[in-house]
Specification:
The chain is of the alpha+beta class. It contains ten helices and 15 strands. It has helices at residues 164-178, 202-235, 246-250, 256-266, 272-278, 281-296, 301-314, 316-320, 326-365, 370-393, and strands at residues 5-10, 16-21, 26-30, 36-40, 47-52, 58-63, 67-72, 78-83, 89-94, 100-105, 109-114, 119-125, 131-136, 142-147, 152-156. Strands 1-2-3-4 form a four-stranded antiparallel β-sheet, with no helix packed on it. Strands 5-6-7-8 form a four-stranded antiparallel β-sheet, with no helix packed on it. Strand 2 (16-21) and strand 3 form a beta hairpin.
Length: 394
Amino acid sequence: MSEDVLCVKYSPDQRLLAVALLDNTVKVFFADTLKFFLSLYGHKLPVLCMDISADSTLLVTGSADRNVKLWGLDFGDCHKSIFAHDDSIMCVQFVAKTHLFFTGGKDKKLKEWDGDKFEHIVTLEGHHAEIWCLAVSPTGSHVVTGSHDKSLRLWEKTQEPLILDEEREMEREKEYENTREEEPVVPGEQNTEASMAGKKTMETVKGAERLMEAIEVYKEETSKLEHHREECQATGKELLPPNLNPLLMAYGATSPGRYVLEIIKRIKSSELEESLLVLPFSYVIDLLNILDVFIESRWEVELSCRCLFFLLRVHHGQITSNQVLLPVIDNLRKNAFSKVSELRDTTGFNLAGLEFLRKHIEDKEEVTFFADATDRFKNKKRKGKKKAILSIKT
């Protein structure tokens, strides 16, 4: 051999011999004559382990480049390359009489794969250090792994049905939960005592996805209503309105705008900023126009302004450099100022009315509300303390 040999594998039909070399290739020879048959290229780092299926048609290789490759032993073609582990793959083995196989790596994980559908089936975690070797029982019901943590682990196949979609969903959720950001990527955000939580969770991502879907539905429904209005003007008749999207009917929304507002209201208050932070800028532009409609129509002005001010703070540079958005921002400035002023005046009027009612009830029924009674009680205690201090001094 021209290079160092890292591992060898004999085919079950005793026809072929596979040899992994230090030059990242795998050479296949005929077992009886040792004549060269195939050379398998593709790995970027040396192949550390390999196995041949029971029917001698598939060769699986695991490499230090963290990829698993499946090869056909008829012509040496690469069926599939899979990014399998987060570190070097140290061991691989087929389950007897199937094209299912297990891989173990330095990332402490044992994974099962389907060699026909090229799908990841399940990830088994438990070792506290690198997995160096594994062995599969002849029936495929047990797998044994040996690790650098000085332990052997015996894994048993259970009768519980495995649903791949649920496994993928759990893996994605775990990945998102483990993704922590020390600080949110907000331009101009200061490292102050009170700041926005920087952890991106599945809920914030799902909230952003629902909001993007709502914006798409809003654009589609608005376009349909505009087209209907133009047809009515062209014919001079009042035509039947188009059917509402089923999503609007499900949320009890009477218009596309009400539907988007309902989606925003259903996002948890603590996760609203993070959900808005995930939105692509193209959706931010559409959302600014929608918020203008909300504020002008006096729909949830406080919530709409909260979303507006956060988006302006986050995307300040892109918004100010976009000439198309200048009229929208100017209109938002006018509407937000006038509607917030109205809301402030209404709140002040209501507070004044409540204060008047409180005094009226006190004068009529000669009772004192608890808040004032508490204040008076505190004042009496303070006066009592002052008298005690004066008496001690005398």
